[in-house]
Amino acid sequence: xxxxxxxxxxxxxxxxxxxxxxxxxxxxxxxxxxxxxxx
Length: 39
Description:
By secondary structure, the protein is mostly helical. It has one domain. It contains two helices and no strands. Helix 1 crosses helix 2. The termini are far apart. The relative contact order is 0.14.
């Protein structure tokens, strides 16, 4: 299974929990960052 397949699966599971697609993709993307700032 490739990384993009894993990310798509994560997005799909989050959508099943009630998140919109954009929200799920943002959550997955942000959770992959080790550190970040909100500038």
